[in-house]
Design goal:
By secondary structure, the protein is mainly α. The protein folds into two domains: about 110 residues, RNA polymerase sigma factor, region 2, helix turn helix motif (Rna Polymerase Sigma Factor, Chain: A, Orthogonal Bundle), CATH 1.10.1740; about 80 residues, Arc Repressor Mutant, subunit A (Orthogonal Bundle). The protein starts with a helix and ends with a helix.
Length: about 200
C-alpha cells in the first residue's frame, strides 16, 4: 500500500485515543473490502478502520491482560501489518480469525521487543561505573540519545540485533555484509556505545 496510507493510519489513530464501541460488519462484502485494501484503496481502509479498530483493541486488551498501553501499542503494530500483508478473504469469519492471529503475533512480538530492549539497556549499563547513581529512566534516555547519534546503517544493525532479535545471518543478508563483518561491527558498536554513555555520565 502506498506511503500515504501509512500517514492515513497515523492520522486516524491520533483522532481517537479512547476507543469507542464500533458496529459489527453487518454482512458486508468482506471479499470486496479486503481486495480493495490489498489494492491500496484508502476509502476501504477507512471502512476497515471504522469497523475493526475497536474490536481489535478490546481483543488485544484481553490478550494484554488489561494493560491498555500494551494493547494500544500492539494494535498500532497490528494495523501496520494489515496494511502490508492483507489478502483477499471470502468471508468475515475467516478474515476475523486472520486478524486475531495477526494481533496475537503483534502482541507477542511487542513483548519480546520490550524484553530485548530492557536486555540491551542492561547490557550497556551493567559495567558503567556510575550506573547505580542513575535511574532507569535516565539511562533509557541516554541510551536512546546515543543510538540516535549513530549512523543510520550502524543504528539499523544494533537495533536489528538487540531490539528486533535478528540473527547475525539475517543482518548479513539484509545489509549485504558478510557474517564476520556484521559480528565485527556489532563488537565495535557495543564498545562505541559504552564509551559514549560513559562520557555522557562523566561529571
Amino acid at each position: 500500500m502506498p506511503g500515504s496510507s501509512a500517514n492515513l493510519l497515523l492520522a486516524l489513530n491520533s483522532q481517537r485515543s479512547v476507543p469507542q464501541c464500533s458496529p459489527e460488519t453487518g454482512g458486508r462484502d468482506i471479499a470486496w473490502l479486503t481486495a480493495k485494501i490489498r489494492a491500496g484503496d484508502e476509502e476501504a481502509f477507512r471502512e476497515f478502520h471504522r469497523v475493526y479498530f475497536d474490536r481489535l483493541y478490546h481483543f488485544l486488551l484481553v490478550v494484554a491482560r488489561g494493560r491498555e498501553d500494551e494493547a494500544m501499542e500492539a494494535l498500532q503494530e497490528t494495523l501496520l501489518r494489515v496494511v502490508h500483508y492483507i489478502r483477499k478473504f471470502e468471508n468475515e469469519e475467516t478474515f476475523w480469525s486472520w486478524l486475531k492471529a495477526v494481533a496475537r503475533s503483534a502482541a507477542r512480538d511487542g513483548g519480546r521487543k520490550h524484553s530485548r530492549y530492557l536486555a540491551l539497556l542492561q547490557r550497556f549499563t551493567l559495567h558503567l561505573e556510575r550506573s547505580a547513581e542513575n535511574s532507569p529512566d535516565e539511562m533509557d534516555a541516554i541510551l536512546q540519545e546515543t543510538l540516535e547519534e549513530l549512523d543510520s546503517s550502524d543504528r539499523q544493525i544494533i537495533k536489528g540485533k538487540y531490539m528486533h532479535g535478528a540473527t547475525v545471518r539475517e543482518l548479513a543478508l539484509e545489509t549485504g555484509l558478510t557474517e564476520k563483518a556484521v559480528e565485527s561491527r556489532l563488537l565495535r558498536l557495543r564498545r562505541q556505545i559504552r564509551e559514549t554513555i560513559l562520557k555522557k555520565l562523566a561529571p
